[in-house]
Amino acid sequence: MLTEINFDGIIGPSHNYAGLSPGNLAATRSHGAVSRPRAAALQGISKMRANLRLGLVEGILLPHARPDHQWLASLHTRYEEASDHLRAQALSASAMWAANAATVSPAPDTADGRCHLTVANLATLPHRSHEWPETLAQLRIAFANDAFRVHAAVPPPFGDEGAANHMRLAGGHDRPGIEVFVFGVPGGAFPARQHREASEAIARGHGLDRARTFFAQQSPEAIEAGAFHNDVVAVANGLVLFAHEQAFADTASFYAGLRAALPEIEIVEVPASQVSLEDAIRSYLFNAQLVTLPGGDTALIVPEEARDTPSVWRWLQEHVAGNGPIRRVEVVDVRESMGNGGGPACLRLRVVADPRTVDPRFLVDEAKLDSIGEVIERYWPEAIKSDDLGDADLIRQIEEARSRLLTSLRIVELIDR
């Protein structure tokens, strides 16, 4: 039976605040702050545990090998000799944001009736551009069953940032859906990371029906305000599209097309007069998990920052009280991830599939989360300061921590990548 599985990225032991992401205002503000990798990873485990208790199906994606010695070797240097900036890029834990791992088209949408995944190239920023080979290796293990097709990345220079710029609307997870690819137009103060050409290539590779595939431009105002991915200003699930008024460049035409293709759609638009773009981005109101609970209700899983932002919390309470499509709001603590610019939705990649077709090592229950938590408690660094990145003992601890986790999960084929 097809169901939505949320694959959460386990926050890696090298999680730090190096400020490597222009346009990501939270990451820029946190530059140089002390990070807490152990607390960050445990916050992620707590979010997964909360999702399990809501009746959702959970999976995991694993921390990448850090520092990335292979990438540094391709630059003809070693970690010990590299500049501070290259060290930070080689040590980045940003693969924890699984929404950037790939773009996923479920089997009901594709020409061959298989679930297709295309790994994101993340070509725009150096610290993320070297993630895709290890992500591809993980996806090809987790989704080795013939029910899936896993594609390599679209080649640069066409930037692709994965599911963070992709939405799906459907009357049920097992029904054909509408797939929406959101792209940006270069030329502003911050980079537009998703290129239309990359989105179009993915749609072709997945064998999508052109009549049920939309390409929408993200508004330049949203990008300038710090919405470096579409999922910072819009999210969709089931028949519900939840978006800020200023999310898209041509809202009227886009919404009209969606309504013509899917008359049952419910578009929940938050007016700028009630929640400013600034408040929406600071609180990560839309970088939330919009999910269907087992009973059929739509719920929104938001970070604590949404509750801490008066305009956002007021809008949410009024919407739920007014019998809107979103019937329930759940609050989670992911402050360490938020400090680097990633909310609840950033931390997960949704895959609609039969769980029996997924490598069981990548699926979790409460007991497995307990086991993962024990490894994190024992081996993850408690804190990393900006001037710690040259500490050889810290690097050894980071490398050992990942190895211990993969060994405990019996996914040892990834250890030496």
Please explain how this structure is put together:
It is a single chain. The protein has 417 residues and is α/β, with parallel strands linked by helices. The chain has a single domain (3-225, 333-414), classed as Succinylarginine dihydrolase (L-arginine/glycine Amidinotransferase, Chain A). It has helices at residues 25-30, 37-53, 69-74, 84-91, 126-129, 132-142, 196-205, 220-225, 251-261, 277-283, 304-308, 310-321, 335-339, 366-379, 392-408; strands at residues 3-9, 57-61, 102-105, 115-119, 148-151, 166-169, 178-183, 213-217, 234-237, 240-244, 266-270, 289-292, 298-303, 326-332, 348-353, 363-364. The protein has a four-stranded mixed sheet. α2 runs antiparallel to α14. The radius of gyration is 20 Å and the shape is globular.
Brief characterization of the structure:
The protein is α/β, with parallel strands linked by helices and 417 residues long. Helices cover 33% and strands 19% of the residues.
